[in-house]
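In this supplementary section we document a worked example of the pipeline. Step one takes a protein sequence of length 172 as its only input; no multiple sequence alignment statistics are reported here. Step two produces a three-dimensional model, which step three serialises into structure tokens for compact storage. The input and output of this example are shown verbatim.
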Amino acid sequence: MRYWTLSGILLLAFLLQSVVSSYLAIGGITPDFLLVVVVTYGLLFGWEVGLVGGVIGGLLIDLITPGFIGRHVLSYGVVGLVSGMMEGRVFKDNLLLAPVGGLVGSVASQMIIVFCFWLYGREVDPIGSLRQTLLPAALYDMALTILVYNRIYKYYLYLKPDPRGTIVIRRH
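The serialised model returned by step three reads:
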């Protein structure tokens, strides 16, 4: 049941990003719902869930956006992995965890995408993209992370994995 719920939240974020995000644009900057969910998954559930959510979410976005496939898979996967590696080192009730995680995750994801553009030979102005796109989008994603993180954290006890892991049969 846990994985079905997490998959449903990821699918809902994909639908919101592909359908609704253009209507929520502020100054041409759209919210990145999938990135926010991937950061939240990593911070709450660990690197495995963050990485898998990032790769699946990135693949979904890459399938509907023009250009080469793989830039969102790479960026969301890395962000999910890194935020998930922080899961055991942070206090989940901390008020600064969601905004800082959203800000750092958004900056890292966008820097990876800019690097992918540069790697494939596209003209990229790093300072211009930093000022015009990266920082406003990071602030937008930071605010959105606060809302999403708190909603998912309410159901954390229901969604967290069983600490006992798998059942082990002992022989006497």
